[in-house]
Amino acid sequence: MNNDSNKSVEQSNSIAADRVQGSFDEDLVTCSICHMILWKPVACKTCENSFCSDCINQWQQKQPNKCPFTCHYEERKCIGAILKVLSRLQINCCYMQSGCSVAVPYEGLEKHEQQCDYQPKKCEGCQRELLLKDLAQHQQQCDQIDLKCSTCETLFKRKDMKNHNEVQCLKQQLQQQKNQVQELKLEFKQEIQQLKGLIPFIGVHWHR
């Protein structure tokens, strides 16, 4: 199986032909650049050959206004016959090897793969890679997940939750209050300095 069969269409911007179920006119819907199934196709107005939009955009960066078929390139909408064949394709999800058994219509492929329960995701705590469908349950138990104390708002790992007892919580609250007092003292000191700076001006105004 092609390596791109294991990538979502969003990651690869292409669809390997071996992912398509059933028979279809492969030549009609194959990109002339990447030689895979057309994805978000556009066509050359001069020769009417079709390309994946990403493929032809990369081509144009290297050879502006030149078609892969050597004619002048001007983009146009892909012809209706090709779009019709594409719309009828049933495509295996790229996460089939991980357990997804769904065949998705061409039009809905990108959305399905973005939401597929069988896509790999990393745990926010231990960074272990799991299937999306298993992630929530794992993170409810993972001892590396960050938790926040509802009382003092201290962050700690789930494995350290037992060590965050009432005494530590009170100490943390006390430290937070000390920090707040220091901030208030600093603000008060700055305000006093500002008032001292105004005193000469107030005196001049009073004598007038």
Describe this structure as you would to a colleague.
- GO terms for molecular function: zinc ion binding.
- This protein has 208 residues and is an alpha+beta fold.
- It has a domain of 113 residues: Zinc/RING finger domain, C3HC4 (zinc finger) (Herpes Virus-1).
- The protein contains 6 helices and 9 strands; from the N terminus they run αββαβαββαββαββα.
- The model has no long low-confidence stretch (mean pLDDT 87).
Keywords:
208 residues; alpha+beta; Herpes Virus-1; coiled coil; zinc-finger; Znf_RING/FYVE/PHD; elongated; metal-binding; 3-stranded antiparallel β-sheet
Write the layout of secondary structure elements.
Blueprint lengths: L8 H4 L28 E4 L5 E3 H10 L12 E3 L2 H9 L1 E3 L10 E3 L3 H7 L4 E3 L6 E3 H8 L6 E3 L6 E3 L8 H42 L1
Antiparallel strand pairs: 1-2, 1-3, 4-5, 6-7, 8-9
Brief synopsis:
By secondary structure, the protein is an alpha+beta fold. It has helices spanning 9-12, 53-62, 80-88, 109-115, 132-139, 166-207, and strands at 41-44, 50-52, 75-77, 90-92, 103-105, 120-122, 129-131, 146-148, 155-157. It has a domain at 3-115: Herpes Virus-1, CATH 3.30.40.10.
